[in-house]
Amino acid sequence: MTRDQRIENILRAQDMARLGILFAPPSFKNASPELLLKVCNGCGAAHAKIDFVPETIYMLYVGYACFIHDWGYYMGKDILDKEETDRVFLNNLLRLIKLDKRWYTPKRLMRRRAKTYYKMVHWFGGPAFWRAKGEYV
């Protein structure tokens, strides 16, 4: 994804949050595009050598939920904030799936994949969360 596409998608996520389509904290809704671009990298770890996490679930773009999740990790202070951010991530994934109006979508499989994304950030997202605080060893 190009920088311009990422900016466009981040701003779209911000608009969706402002409209109540996706859940996000007020700090995300009011953040400057420059700060959002710095903080939000999309699906997958920002420092990974290989980007192996797809930004789509069965052809549905879910990067909007990933941007909000990145923001939550950036703003979070403790493990309770991480857990809340992970739950919001799942909620937003499920909202995006519910909104998908294509003539055929494998909704059950999509929800299962969303739950897998949630489990992965819940179980393995600790280093990314603490790295955002400068506390990762």
What does this structure look like?
The structure is a single chain. The mean pLDDT is 91. Helix 1 crosses helix 4, helix 4 (63-75) packs antiparallel against helix 5 (79-99) and helix 5 (79-99) packs antiparallel against helix 6. The chain contains seven helices and two strands, in the order H-H-H-E-E-H-H-H-H. The chain is mainly alpha-helical. Strands 1-2 form a two-stranded antiparallel sheet. A hairpin with a 2-residue loop joins strand 1 (56-57) and strand 2. The radius of gyration is 14 Å and the shape is globular. The protein starts with a helix and ends in a 6-residue tail after the last helix. It has one domain: Phospholipase A2 (Up-down Bundle).
Short descriptors:
about 140 residues, Phospholipase A2, 2 strands, two-stranded antiparallel ribbon, single chain, 7 helices, mainly alpha
Overall outline: globular
Q: How many beta-strand elements?
A: 2
Q: Supply Rg.
A: 14 Å
Strand content: under 5%
Task: Tell me the structural class.
Answer: mainly alpha
The CATH class turns out to be Mainly Alpha
Kindly report how far apart the N and C termini lie.
30 Å
What is the CATH topology assignment? Phospholipase A2
Low-confidence stretches: none
**How would you describe the oligomerization state of the chains in this entry?**
single chain
Helical content class: 55-70%
- In CATH terms, what is the architecture? Up-down Bundle
Q: How many domain modules?
A: 1
Quick gist of this model?
With 137 residues, the protein is mainly alpha-helical. The protein contains seven helices and two strands; from the N terminus they run H-H-H-E-E-H-H-H-H. 63% of the residues lie in helices and 3% in strands.
